Amino acid sequence: MRTLSWIASAALLAACTSPPLETGGTQTAQTARTESCRPISEAEVAVLFERWNRALATGDPRQVVALYAERSILLPTLSNQPRLNAAEKEDYFHHFLENQPAGRIDLRRVEIGCNSLVDAGLYTFTFTKTGAVVNGRYSFTYRWNGSDWLITSHHSSAMPEKR
Fold first, then answer.
1. Does the residue 163 lie in any domain?
2. Residue 14 and residue 27: Cα distance in Å, rounded?
3. What is the pTM of this model?
4. Helix, strand or coil for residue 76?
5. Phi/psi at 115 (5° precision)
6. Contact at 8 Å (CB) between 143 and 48?
7. Is 9 in the same domain as 84?
């Protein structure tokens, strides 16, 4: 009786810990996912922002847009229109870059996952052409595409209260 109970317990435990079969096949969910995680440090995340900032400094909106994934969203500071495709993002950056912006991170919090990350906090933009300074909040999400970290979402908004 004890042996039967042990066998039943072992079978139940195996059923609970074994991954389920996928619908329509014999491959398990565990073996179906072969993605490996691309490691990245917080210092390397800071470099991603600097890469974006350097692209702004070129004055070429195409160089900035090249840092965004094809399926991404830009919720910009100076426009009410969400930018969903490359042409819309390029249009926004064409106007944004006219005043020669340069960004500086004031506060950053980073969350790193498997092939994705969130970089969020506060930044300040100085516009060389006008001398204007704008304090804002930001969030960038990135995804590793197998060869590069690309922006999948970018939200930016001016601080609601003056400092």
1. no
2. 17
3. 0.78
4. coil
5. 65, 20
6. no
7. no
